[in-house]
From TrEMBL:
Belongs to the glycosyl hydrolase 27 family. GO terms for biological process: carbohydrate metabolic process. This is Alpha-galactosidase. It is an enzyme of class 3 (hydrolase). The keyword Thylakoid does not apply. It catalyses: Hydrolysis of terminal, non-reducing alpha-D-galactose residues in alpha-D-galactosides, including galactose oligosaccharides, galactomannans and galactolipids. It comes from Bifidobacterium oedipodis. It comes from the Bacteria. Its EC number is 3.2.1.22. Keywords: Disulfide bond, Glycosidase, Hydrolase. GO terms for molecular function: alpha-galactosidase activity.
Amino acid sequence: MSTATSNTPKAWRPPMGWNSWDSYGTTVNEEEVLANARFMAEHLLAAGWDTLVIDIDWYDPTARAHGYNTDAPLILDEFGRQLPDPQRFPSAAGGKGFGPLAEKVHQLGLKLGVHMMRGIPRIAVDKDLPVKNSTFTAKDVADLDHVCKWNPDNYGLKPGHPGSQDWYDAQIDQFAEWGLDFLKVDDMQTPFHAEEIAAYHRAIAKAEAKWGRDISLSLSPGGWVSTTYVDFLRDNAQMWRISDDLWDRWEDIYQQLRRLPRWAPLQQTGHWADADMLPLGHIGLRAERGDDRDSRLTGPERRTLLALWCMGRSPLMVGGDLPTSTPETIALLANPALQEVTAGSTNNRETVYERQFAEWWNPDSYRGDLVVWAADAADWADGTPSAHPNGRYAALIWTGEDDYELGDNIELKSIVGLEHMEEPWTLTDLFAGVADGMADADARIEGQGSDRVIKGTIPAHGVLWIALDPQ
């Protein structure tokens, strides 16, 4: 079992990992998890990718693609706690749970996490099973009025009931005993179940103290989550979603252009607003939505997705099956700029959002939106020096359906600051050399002194993602 040894806080940078949902839905098995773990360790660990998450229904032996099963015969222990299906996870047989699998993942230098639903299994309530280390039973703590609207497995828990805390304490104690590092807990935020979030946090703190290991908490889903909750979320979690599920559609990315600017100024070491998974690579093998496919996002859209998430310092959780994804996808994920910007930037913000028209006086000639993000390069929270000391990062995003040629509208001083507008600066394309099948970006600095501008051509739904360094 690995233990926490670092002096840096949990989730000191936005986590980077793989989640089984986009590829396998509710049906992923041990062999598939290990295949992705081995691939990550060999090809992506050096670029910052270090976490694997087994998504929903790993305890349902009847799990299937495209949906959930009503009255599923969930596998539980004598206290109503979920156990992995031993047919899909053979190493879990005999009550070993995810302990053997976590050990294998840790030996690769990686972390292992699982998805959980809020509340207590209906089967445990129907059988009125005892809650471990408690005087209460499942029926005592179940709240039949607060159940998930889209998954039938669980009842909610009675807010403030001491037995509810006992339930979460016992559940998370078992996860810690197995050696898990990461918990994605669903049905927590839409609607916002503050008491259950706090109870989960308290249970994690107890398990960490007992077992001597860190466990990061990620909350889902994120529809309608207000920034007014940010202090509470920071007190209780390391990640929280800011949208519902995102898939390989441009409109899903476009909507995050509106959400991420609200949350980016609130990002804080150890606590991250999450713009959701990256539907990149080979997805849909047995997923909830769509058929077996490579991500339908275009090359420019994939780059925009990654640049936007990084500039907003969102966690990066890729959904494609790594061993069967294209070399171009893996090249994108292996780009060191992803970790460089998520771990080593500050003052991240949207600076420009302007609608563009072919004829400025004609509202019917709308072409798209020009969106600019800027950030300051910074040393990492773990002490790693910045790759661009005293530098800047910028992402220039174009949402239109045709290429966009930058004029004189993006001044260099708007990114580097008025106090530095006369100084010499060099520009680096952050996708340069990435073998994803796209040509290097046409991005450059033109002009003299304070009149310098960023020039270039942005492809449809594309981005110019750059670093600027003082000479």
